[in-house]
């Protein structure tokens, strides 16, 4: 069982930056590939970014590529999402999620929510124009 707790959300102006953190329980954090998703009320959950257990490979949605950076510190059991050049359309509840495995089977799995059995409670990010 993996428990995830997100932090770092808040209100920021367009063009600003925020860094989200996700702290995970468990002794084998490097065995879990991790993902970030976001959701706006009334809309489907959207993939944002993912990272393999070693941190060697990272994936991004086209909408955040070049602005967001995912990273992890396995010694601290924490995954981060650095969000720069924020836009009002980035406003959402952001969730981190953990996979059972350190790698993704294919490029079709890292963005699929069903790949991740463990989810945090979410943190609100609001970007004002």
Polypeptide structure, described:
- The chain is mostly beta strands and about 130 residues long.
- The chain is about 0% helix and about 45% strand.
- It has no helices and eleven strands.
- It has strands at about 5, 10-15, 20-25, 35-40, 45-50, 60, 70-75, 80-85, 90-100, 120, 125-129.
- The strands form two sheets. Strands 2, 4, 5, 6, 9, 10 and 11 form a seven-stranded mixed β-sheet that branches. It has a four-stranded antiparallel β-sheet with strand order 1-3-8-7, with no helix packed on it.
- Strand 4 (about 35-40) and strand 5 form a beta hairpin.
- It is globular.
Total number of helices: 0
Instruction: Report the mean per-residue pLDDT as an integer.
Output: 95
Strand content: 35-45%
Largest sheet at a glance?
7 strands, mixed
Q: Which runs of at least 5 residues are low in confidence (pLDDT < 50)? A: none
Oligomer: single chain
| Cα radius of gyration in angstroms | 14 Å
Percent helix, as a range, is: under 10%
Number of distinct beta strands: 11
How would you describe the shape? Answer: globular
Element-level helix/strand string: EEEEEEEEEEE
- The N- to C-terminal Cα distance equals 40 Å
